[in-house]
Amino acid sequence: MSTSRNVLVTGGASGIGFGIAAQLAAAGHFVVIADLNQSAAEDACTKLAQAGAKCRAVAVDVCDADAVAQLPKTLIETPIDVLVNNAGIQHVARLDDFPAHKWQQLIQVMLVGPALLTQAFLPHMREQNFGRIINVGSIHSVVASPFKSAYVAAKHGLLGFAKTVALETGDCDVTINTMCPAYVKTPLVEQQIKAQAVENNLSEEDVVNKIMLEPMPKKAFIEPSELASTAEFLMSDAAKNITGQTLILDGGWTCR
């Protein structure tokens, strides 16, 4: 195994975040599961610990600048080497009907949050001359779909953010990249299927086949393990000069 790292995964209690956390923990890394819900984070950490993993749970609202800024002190015994910006939410609605507070919330969670977290952990990464910042973007970082204006805007924004930070960290062994998967079968996507069925007046089965999988030549949901393995590669020495990049796992979607 490569060098053991301290990895913080936001939104790590479920879905993609838990999948990444579990695989990295199994590979021998110390994983900090950060989630808005303390009990959910602790439950996830208990599952990993039962499998022999080293982990810790921490509650944090990624939109709370003061709380995020305190994280390095909270985690002083396990300074973070790798930050996985995964926390995400979704709201599906026409812009005409999109609640303003909900639009702002999506931007705060999925764009401002990663910036605050990167700002908090970057000084340690720079000081030790090693750091990996891995954003979990989306196919919607590079294409758009109707009824997702806030989500698409936030995920597109991650790419520009990563490119800028890559330029600012060219003087040290710190990289920042964005993984952009097509649909991953998670609780968040399950909720989307129901919402998209209403907005598009389709059955849930048709939403899966005609909206989610239709653009993909491979016609398959992305597995969390694919993202976890991509994260492992980005953490490796082989990827030390891959920075500011967009890694698209889309089953061929964007070839069209």
Automatic annotation (TrEMBL):
Pfam families, alphabetized: adh_short
InterPro entries xref list: 3-OHbutyrate_DH, NAD(P)-bd_dom_sf, Sc_DH/Rdtase_CS, SDR, SDR_fam
Keyword Glycosyltransferase found: no
SUPFAM superfamilies given in the database record: NAD(P)-binding Rossmann-fold domains (SSF51735)
Keywords linked to the UniProt accession: Oxidoreductase
Source domain of life: Bacteria
Signal peptide residue numbers: none
Enzyme class label: oxidoreductase
Gene Ontology molecular function: 3-hydroxybutyrate dehydrogenase activity
PANTHER family: 3-OXOACYL-(ACYL-CARRIER-PROTEIN) REDUCTASE (PTHR42879), 3-OXOACYL-[ACYL-CARRIER-PROTEIN] REDUCTASE FABG (PTHR42879:SF2)
Family: Belongs to the short-chain dehydrogenases/reductases (SDR) family.
Name of this protein: 3-hydroxybutyrate dehydrogenase
